[in-house]
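Entry under discussion copied across for reference:
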Amino acid sequence: MIFPTVNSSRSGSLSHLSHILISLIVSVLIAISVKPASAEDITMPNEYSASEKRALGFEIAQELRCPISDNRSLFDSQTQIANELKGHIFQKLDEGQSKQQIIDFMVARFGERIRYTPSFHSGTLALWVIPLGLILLAAFGGIAWIKKQQANSAPQSYENYYE
C-alpha cells in the first residue's frame, strides 16, 4: 500500500493517519475472516481399531437424524437410506476420517436438519436463546408470584398476630 507523503501541514498528517487507520482496520478484518488450519486439517488420516470404528460409527449414527423417518436417528431407523448412510459412515471411518469430518459431510449433503443438536451460529441462534429465555422468564415469574403470595399472607400488624 502506498501512503501519501507527510506534509508539514496538519491536514497532511491527518490524511496520513487516516490511511494508516484504514489499512489497520482492513488488516484486522482480513485476519479475523481467515480460518486458521486446525490440527485435524493437517494431520494424516486416523487409524481406528475395529472396536473403535464400531463404537464411533454407532455414536455418529445416534447423533444424526434419518432424512426420511420422523424423529429417528440413523442408528434406530431401518429405512433404506438410513442403512446406506450408516454404510457411508463406516466407509469414511475406513478412510480415516474423523467424527467431525463425517458429520460435516452429512450436513453438507442433507442440510442442518440431519443433526439432532443444531450447531450454534446466527441462523440457529433463536433455537438456543428462546428456550433459555423462557426458562428465565418462568423462574422470575415464579419468584415474583411466591413473593406476592408471601406478602399477601403476612399479618398486617404484630398485635393481631399474637391474638
Q: What stands out?
A: The CA atoms of residues 134 and 140 lie 10 Å apart. The longest helix spans residues 125-153. DSSP finds seven helices and no strands in the chain.
